[in-house]
Amino acid sequence: MAMTIHVDIVSAEAAIYSGLAELVVAPAEMGEVGIAARHAPFLTRLKPGEVRVKVSANETQPFYISGGMLEVQPHTVTVLADMAMPARNINEARALESKQKAEEMLADKTGQLDYAKAQAMLAESVIQLRVLDKYRKTKS
Asked: Is-above-0.90 flag for pTM?
């Protein structure tokens, strides 16, 4: 049996996941990081993307996060996310609608838009769609 580490994924609204895992992979600011049991302690920012929790050799649970912080202790990993959800809960229609709206905002040349907000909205919806697509491919 592989060594495990306790994982907590928490959003601003609720606890999303709590349990044991063999490995956690997260989108850190400087690149993807993999954390296993007895990892050296560290703290880093997270980019929007996918957090993968490898529960066992046969089961990996993917989560979408919109960014946040990752704290690693020798026996505990904590993901503090602005927004987090299991990949299976991503609303594809809402993500596509958000993507389309952001693209329309960016195409608007009248100067009446918040460019940074439109870019962030576009990036978030594209990442959600990628995480959902990857989840669906692994379930097939």
From this structure: no
